[in-house]
Amino acid sequence: MHLHAGANYIDPGTGSMLFTLLIGLLSTGYFFLKKYFIKIKFLLSGGGAKGAAESEELPYVIFSDSKRYWNLFKPICDEFERRGLPARYWTASPDDPALEVPYEHVKCEFIGEENKAFARLNMMSATICLSTTPGLDVYQWKRSKGVRWYAHVLHAVGSAAGYRMFGIDYYDAMLLSGDFQVEEVRELERLRNLPAKECVLVGCPYLDVMAERLKGLKPPEKDRVTVLLAPSWGPSAILSVYGKRIIDALVNTGYEVIIRPHPQSKVSEADMLDGLMKAYPDGGDVSWNFDNDNFDVLNRADVMITDFSGVIFDYALVFDKPIIYTEGQFDNAVYDAAWLDKPLWKFSVYPTLGIPLDESQFPKMREVIDDVLADDRLKAGRDAARADAWVHRGESTVRTVDYLVKKYEELVANGE
Questions:
Q1: Residue 101: exposure state from Cβ atoms within 10 A (0-12, 13-18, ≥19)
Q2: Where are the alpha helices (DSSP H) in 174-237?
Q3: What values do phi and psi take at 286, rounded to 5?
Q4: Which sign does the torsion angle of CA 368, 275, 5, 388 carry?
Q5: Does residue 256 sit in the same domain as residue 403?
Q6: How many domains does one find in the chain?
Q7: Crossing angle (nearest 10°) for helices 396-414 and 70-83
Q8: What is the mean pLDDT of the chain?
Q9: Is 99 exposed, middle or buried (CB count within 10 Å of its CB: 0-12, 13-18, 19+)?
Q10: Taking residues 257-267, what's their average pLDDT?
Q11: Which CATH number does the domain housing residue 356 bear?
């Protein structure tokens, strides 16, 4: 599974075409046999409710392809548990923190990695599947004939068109946090002649949780400015483009420097990342952060330097602090954004959240950082972006589960 700009995407290189064809044949045969097996059980039970209940269709399945999305799904699982509703949380990470939570009504299960997980998903029987993984019905992950409804929830408050091409096309519903995301989804549907999805503004559950955690929290104790370098991954991202040059510039400021690479860098850019970590060992002025939960490191930082990573909005909107961003390096050729005739919303608001950075400024990096920290005008930009991108603050989790429950009842009542 490969990522971009903070988002997981199923890559054709993860498995072969043979695997896709094989799973297709197996799932077709599986559902053919299952249909008649259920009929036999129903008849043997006397045609009563017991036989019908044993069809084994799960009401709600939440799928996460990575443990790093537990911050998004935990509040949703907690709400299912609070309501006493049976739900399944399926993860492709064997060390997902969810597996350690002692829920009574939510069953958390590791379903295998990569192709093993896809095989399980492709033969899943559920009324509703909720996921944040794009690429449904594009490569290995196929729509199961046993699933009535697929809902996608964004794992950042940025643009809905920021995924690799066709990433959200085959979902039935999009759970969103801003009107601009609805506009992007509708434009992609129009351009590709797709049926309209249900677009529901629910807000952003994990941002609500972060904001609640921040309330009343004392500022971290320290004796100097802390700079967080938090890039995305890939050839257009900061570490690939600038590498040692930007790290040297940050070290020369005399400030505390924390580098938090994108998790996919460990997979797709391991050689590059290993080289940088050897050149700048952990300790002293530079430290490396790979925590699954980014709350503490975001709270510690006084300013963030990034590129097109969705973590920009976690930092600016929740912690209300400025950013420094690199410009002109995002190639949208393989993304849904390439279909749109205007820049993604997130790129249009960057100038209101912080200041741009290019290599010519590296020799005066300390001055650049000091300037952005002193720029009080940026707060108004953060306030405006927060209003646009994070609706229903404090209500997001309840609204998300309310939608899923209502949709479940509708599907069951209509026999869809």
A1: middle
A2: 179-192, 205-214
A3: -120, 135
A4: negative
A5: no
A6: 2
A7: 60
A8: 88
A9: middle
A10: 91
A11: 3.40.50.2000
Could you tell me which residues come within 8 angstroms of residue 133 by beta carbon, excluding any fewer than 6 positions away?
8, 9, 10, 63, 64, 65, 141
The predicted-structure confidence for 9-66, as pLDDT tens digits, reads as follows 455 444 445 555 555 555 455 544 544 454 454 444 444 433 333 348 999 999 999 9
From 224, 249, 197, select the one nearest 360 (Cα to Cα). 249
Percent of the chain clearing pLDDT 70 (strictly above): 86
One domain, residues 286 and 177: no
Does residue 309 sit in the same domain as residue 359?
A: yes
CB 304 within 8 A of CB 321: yes
Residues 186 and 286 in one domain: no
* Rounded CA separation 294/220 (Å): 15
pLDDT of residue 329: 63
d(CA 257, CA 254): 9
Task: Decide: helix, strand or coil at residue 409.
Answer: helix
> Can you give the residue range of the structural domain that contains 124?
2-204+393-414
pLDDT confidence of residue 53: 36
All residues at 6 or more sequence positions from 107 whose CB lies less than 8 Å from its CB, including other chains? 86, 87, 88, 89
Structure tokens at 140: 């290995």
180 and 270 part of one domain:
no
Residues 262 and 359 in one domain: yes
What CATH number should be reported for the domain holding residue 89?
3.40.50.11720
Please give the Cα distance from 377 to 267 (Å, whole number).
Answer: 39
pTM of the model: 0.83
The length of the chain is 416
Tell me the three state secondary structure of residue 371: helix
Strands of the sheet with 256-259, listed across from one edge:
286-288, 256-259, 226-229, 303-306, 323-326, 354-357
How is residue 92 annotated by DSSP? S
Same structural domain for residues 139 and 181?
A: yes
**DSSP, residue by residue, 252-316:** TTTSEEEE---TTHHHHSHHHHHHHHHHS-SBTTEEE---S--HHHHHH-SEEEESS-THHHIII
- Strands 286-288 and 256-259 turn out to be parallel
Distance CA 246, CA 253 (A): 11
DSSP 8-class letter at 13: G
218 shares a domain with 193: no
Single out the residue of 360, 340, 335 nearest to residue 162, CA to CA: 335
pLDDT digits (tens, 9 = 90+) for 355-396: 999 999 999 999 999 999 999 999 999 999 999 999 999 999
